[in-house]
């Protein structure tokens, strides 16, 4: 068993490959799409990697004691798996460090979803409060390797918060395109605070997306939208951490919210690779959960993907308010690799699930609660069995969207089942005692 804890001196070869026609391109060429117009994946030489990595290599790195300085190779839950994400030298790495997120279990939560083995992995406890950091550490590292003079993305929030932070760490200017007036306060605050050039486009997300792609092509700026396959490589580490955390014994299910389908795509690829590399014998099934008002992938799934549906999206869960998901084809592949399923939940179900997660002392932003609402629904429908082990992914932090939470608890959300409004009272000890006695 190799105990080599340093960066591999002989990086495995990696290439860009088109998801449809199979054309390949070198990774040191800046391109986001194949000449045929379809998506690109980063592919590693799995044959070569099989002789270079194993469970013991990754387990050995868990004991890497944190020193006074951040060392991404020791402290990051992404770069722990670097051989199968982006083999590079340590000096190139831009890290906060990210990953190593906790897995929570809570009795009332398990009861509410109807599972005997329900766990939540909290990706909202990443440095900028969402799983996007796992992709961005890799994307911005790659931007630096390519000598990018600037980086850019269009985003409804968490991607811009994350890009702004990592670009600032790397000293690369960041340009962020957001649809005007449609971004949660916590996310916009981060983009501004981290010094990104923030352009509020008077239009919708698709307008912002079209402009950022044109600007990147015309001005030689490096595009870090989820088209960018290097980000998805970083997001695979969520799955590697889960598998390693469970002693390389796969849970039965991983349930996650699905918007642009980047994570759905990354999870499937990670599981495929983990199995090919012999890290696990068996892989979990994936359940991708969409909000009913933003469910183009679910609608397509209903036709067995004979039809590719898009829609005008609307949901309280802004992080998954996407009507034409970028990683559509990559996500179909995930369902094939993992015997996966797709479900939808309503905004009411999302907000009530969120309230349950929040009052368990865990907390998440609305989109994340789709995992919990979705698990509950899939158990009720008999798709997931109560005794099966389920890992739900909480994708973002409670503080990202304070307005949604306050609205829910203060009466603006008419079907709130678990509202916890504040009490108005006179500045008088008798009044205070009365309230407290009633509640104890
Ligand atoms: C980006 C994001 C999602 C959606 O992930 P996709 O990869 O686009 O499907 C879900 N939740 C949160 C909090 C996000 O930031
Ligand atoms: Zn192609």
Mind sketching the topology for me?
Blueprint: E1 14-18, E2 24-26, E3 40-44, H1 46-50, H2 55-61, H3 72-75, E4 103-104, H4 107-113, E5 117-122, H5 132-145, E6 151-154, H6 158-170, E7 174-179, H7 185-193, E8 197-201, H8 205-219, E9 222-223, H9 229-245, E10 253-257, H10 262-276, E11 285-291, H11 296-302, H12 328-338, E12 341-345, H13 347-359, H14 370-380, E13 389-394, H15 402-409, H16 429-439
Parallel strand pairs: 5-13, 6-7, 6-9, 7-8, 10-11, 10-13, 11-12
Antiparallel strand pairs: 1-2, 1-3, 4-5
The structure holds pyridoxal-5'-phosphate and zinc ion (ZN).
Structural summary, described in words:
The protein has 440 residues and is α/β, with parallel strands linked by helices. It has a domain at 103-128 and 231-409: Rossmann fold (3-Layer(aba) Sandwich), CATH 3.40.50. The chain is 38% helix and 14% strand. The chain has 16 helices and 13 strands. The chain has helices spanning 46-50, 55-61, 72-75, 107-113, 132-145, 158-170, 185-193, 205-219, 229-245, 262-276, 296-302, 328-338, 347-359, 370-380, 402-409, 429-439, and strands at 14-18, 24-26, 40-44, 103-104, 117-122, 151-154, 174-179, 197-201, 222-223, 253-257, 285-291, 341-345, 389-394. The strands form 3 sheets. It has a 6-stranded mixed β-sheet with strand order 4-5-13-10-11-12, sandwiched between helices. Strands 8-7-6-9 form a 4-stranded parallel β-sheet, sandwiched between helices. A hairpin with a 5-residue loop joins strand 1 and strand 2 (24-26). The longest helix has 17 residues, at 229-245. Zinc ion (ZN) binds at residues 18, 20-21, 23, 34, 36, 38.
């Amino acid at each position: 068993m190799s105990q080599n804890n340093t960066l591999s001196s002989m990086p495995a070869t990696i290439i860009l490959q088109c998801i449809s026609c199979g054309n390949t391109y070198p990774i040191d060429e800046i391109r986001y799409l194949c000449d045929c117009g379809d998506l690109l994946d980063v592919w590693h030489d799995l044959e070569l990697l099989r002789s270079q990595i194993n469970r013991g290599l990754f387990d050995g790195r868990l004991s890497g004691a944190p020193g006074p300085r951040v060392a991404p190779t020791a402290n990051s839950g992404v770069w722990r798996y670097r051989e199968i994400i982006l083999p590079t030298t340590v000096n190139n790495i831009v890290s906060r460090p990210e990953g190593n997120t906790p897995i929570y279990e809570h009795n009332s939560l398990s009861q509410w979803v109807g599972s005997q083995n329900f766990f939540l992995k909290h990706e909202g406890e990443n440095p900028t409060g969402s799983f996007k950091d796992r992709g961005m550490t890799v994307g911005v590292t790659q931007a630096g390797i390519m000598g990018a003079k600037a980086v850019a993305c269009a985003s409804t929030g968490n991607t811009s918060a994350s890009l702004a932070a990592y670009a600032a760490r790397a000293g690369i200017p960041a340009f962020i395109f957001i649809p005007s007036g449609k971004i949660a306060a916590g996310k916009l605050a981060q983009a501004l605070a981290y010094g990104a050039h923030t352009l509020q486009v008077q239009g919708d997300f698709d307008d912002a997306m079209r402009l950022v792609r044109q600007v990147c092509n015309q001005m030689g700026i490096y595009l870090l939208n989820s088209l960018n396959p290097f980000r998805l490589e970083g997001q695979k580490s969520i799955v590697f951490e889960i598998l390693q955390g469970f002693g390389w014994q796969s849970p039965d299910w991983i349930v996650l919210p699905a918007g642009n389908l980047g994570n759905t795509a990354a999870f499937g690829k990670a599981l495929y690779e983990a199995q090919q590399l012999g890290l696990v014998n068996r892989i979990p099934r994936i359940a991708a959960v969409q909000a009913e008002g933003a469910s183009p992938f679910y609608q397509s799934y209903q036709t067995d993907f004979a039809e590719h549906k898009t829609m005008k999206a609307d949901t309280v869960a802004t992080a998954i308010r996407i009507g034409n998901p970028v990683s559509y084809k990559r996500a179909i592949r995930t369902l094939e690799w993992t015997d996966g399923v797709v479900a939808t939940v309503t905004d009411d179900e999302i907000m009530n699930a969120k309230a349950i997660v929040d009052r368990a002392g865990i907390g998440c932003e609305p989109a994340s609660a789709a995992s919990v609402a979705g698990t509950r629904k899939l158990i009720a429908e008999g798709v997931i069995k109560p005794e099966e082990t389920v890992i739900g992914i909480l994708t973002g932090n409670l503080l990202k969207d304070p307005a949604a939470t306050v609205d829910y608890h203060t009466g603006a959300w008419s079907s709130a089942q678990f509202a916890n409004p504040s009490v108005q009272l006179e500045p008088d000890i008798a009044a205070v005692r009365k309230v407290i006695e009633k509640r104890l």
